[in-house]
Specification:
181 residues, alpha/beta
Length: 181
């Protein structure tokens, strides 16, 4: 575990713990308020994120921005990160060993931000944070508790781009945050 942001950022920027380092343009560590009450965790960078070094700036990010607007939350108020910090080729899911290699980074980020609420975006975030036994369809929209934090899984915004019918669930889930803040 890294003790502060400087140590974490240095470790991430020099990381060669898995093969994803070979294809990256940028390490995508996280963005937003480092003292946020709410933290969002996605899967891993796509092409736009890899180019800019910032999470959720592509199509899925634009959807997140709309959701923030609807919730009356400013993007800069929350903290946003991913399970893996380097782009998986062709946007495939991160492999277990890649997610495992990156695990101490997201764990450090959670500890340093110390959010009250964590929103898990999609199955990869759900399984890596709460456990392999959880499925997104049955877990979304339910509150879990871990290390004294409230955890809410929901669909990944990219899933809404593939299947519009999920938008209503995503929105219902995110609205649940407003009762907790
Ligand atoms: N999808 C993710 O899971 N994370 C990003 O940063 C962008 C798209």
């Amino acid at each position: 575990m890294y003790q502060n942001w400087e140590e974490l950022e240095q470790a991430c920027n020099n990381c060669k713990k898995c093969k994803l380092c070979n294809g990256r343009k940028n390490v995508v560590i996280g963005t937003g308020n480092k003292n946020a009450k709410i933290m969002f965790i996605g899967e891993g960078p796509g092409a736009d994120e890899d180019t800019q070094g910032i999470p959720f700036v592509g199509k899925a990010g634009q959807l997140m921005n709309k959701a923030f607007e609807g919730l009356g939350i400013k993007r800069e108020e929350v903290y946003i990160a991913n399970i893996v910090k380097c782009r998986p080729p062709q946007n495939r899911n991160p492999e277990k060993e890649e997610a495992d290699a990156c695990k101490e980074y997201i764990e450090t980020q959670i500890n340093l931000v110390n959010p009250e609420i964590i929103i898990l975006l999609g199955s990869v975030a759900l399984k890596n944070i709460l456990g392999e036994q959880y499925g997104i369809t049955s877990s979304r929209g339910k509150w879990f508790e871990k290390d004294g934090r409230k955890i809410l899984p929901t669909f990944h915004p990219a899933a809404l781009l593939r299947d519009e019918t999920k938008k209503i669930n995503f929105w219902q889930d995110l609205k649940m945050i407003t009762n907790k803040i």
